[in-house]
Amino acid sequence: METRDWMRDGLRAVAGGALAIALSLTNVVLFLLFVLALIMTPVLGLGLVLLPLVTSLVRLRAEAGRGVAGWWGVPVARPYRPRPPTIGFLGWRAYRWIITDPATWRDFAWLIPGAIVGLGLGLGSLLIPLYGLQGVVLLPLWIWLGTGWYGYGVIWPIESVSEGFLSLPQGALFLAIGLAVAPYLRRFDAQFARLFLAPTRNAELRLRVTELTVIRADTVDAQAAELRRIERDLHDGAQARLVALGMTIGLAEEMVERDPATARRLLAEAREASSTALVELRHLVRGIHPPVLAERGLDGAVRALALHLRIPTSVDSDVTERLDTPVESAAYFAIAEALANVTVHSGATFAYVSIKRDDSHLLLEVGDDGHGGADPSRGTGLRGIQRRLAAFDGTMTLSSPPGGPTIVTMELPCALSSPRTTLSSGTD
Q: Coiled-coil ranges per the record (predicted)?
């Protein structure tokens, strides 16, 4: 580690120690308020109002603890049960929902131990470097104060400038040790907080079930919407043309004896209508599962897609193996939707697609040089990508600051599909 990085991390940890001291004091206050709310519930019933309010503050404090732990490389997931939409923020139902959530009591159990550990480690993170800094500046301080006694380190009297120099090496040593140890103290504090604030195994399973329930509902809704789209496209497009085609052929059959010229004209119109209906059916099938995806795999299908965009688009892929069909399809349509957003909304002059694969995940990235400002909450395109990937336990992250660039990063769990052929790879 470079000296600059080492000192930066140390100073950040010292600041984190000061923050931990302040937050530890709030733990004690919240603990007392929580106990007071519990006591007042059977006596005056005020806990029905007070406990939900205090619990909200406790959870805010716990969320701050999880956030601080995340700063030090110790991610802590939220363990709380989702609030049912029929439950308000106050009253008996809110009270019962709070006290039956195990995460409430884990937060409560953490308040005092977290305050003690946070205060102790925070003081350690803060005082050791400050003590070292005191030794470094002790000589100028002694000169400024003038004559008199001053002690430092192993406590020897300093009565002259020459003796004052003895504080410098000890001060520098304490300062270096303090800056080096402070990040480890902060990480230990984060690990201790995770013991209480992270979801238990049962809570993780419960949260996962809830998440999968939401994903399943979104997937079912998306599939239903896709079926309605296909039905509408068939009804309004190919089906209507085939009905008209049948009527035209019927008229030609009636006119073939009486007016052969008209019959030939009607048959020519029927042939043209059949060609149009065939093109529409091909477009519809391509929207369900593009033939190029089945023939050339994800790499070839994305390159073919990029060639038809109206802005220059480069494709960089190291995926030479065929993947499972559902994964290939989800990845293709996610990339296609992201590129559609680029061409329609970004105002970009250039776009790129990156497709990488590690041992167990497919890593996709779509970027552009547009004006940025993309927001999933303002449209259905990015939300559709999230729903499509979520069905496979995939994720999407978006970076789109005002002024650009916009980068959509997607990750899909995947495995090799061995019976299928290997493709050539390259870079456009």
A: none
Per-residue model confidence (pLDDT) at position 211: 65
Q: ∠221-222-228 over CA atoms, to 5°?
A: 90
CA distance 251 to 254: 5
Asked if residues 193 and 112 have their Cβ atoms less than 8 Å apart, the reply is no
Which strand (E) or helix (H) includes residue 174? helix 167-197
Q: Are 199 and 79 in contact (CB under 8 A)?
A: yes
Q: Which residues, in sequence order, are CB contacts of 323 under 8 Å at separation 6+?
A: 297, 298, 331, 362, 414, 415, 416, 417
Structural domain spans, the chain? 3-197, 202-288, 293-413
Average pLDDT of the chain?
77
Q: How far apart are CA 261 and CA 268, in angstroms?
A: 11
Report the C-alpha gap between 264 and 212 in whole angstroms: 60
DSSP state, residue 24: H
Q: How far apart are CA 119 and CA 114, in angstroms?
A: 8
Name, in order, each residue with C-beta under 8 angstroms of 120's C-beta and a sequence gap of 6 or more.
Answer: none
Cα angle at 266 between 261 and 267, to 5 degrees?
A: 95
Residue 397's pLDDT band (boundaries 50, 70, 90)?
confident
For residue 380, what pLDDT band results from cuts at 50, 70 and 90? low
Architecture of domain 202-288: Up-down Bundle (1.20)
| C-alpha dihedral sign at 409, 413, 415, 420 | negative
User: For the purposes of burial, counting CB atoms within 10 Å of the CB of 122, is it exposed (0-12), middle (13-18) or buried (19 or more)?
Assistant: buried
What's the rounded Cα separation, in Å, for the pair 339 and 368? 9
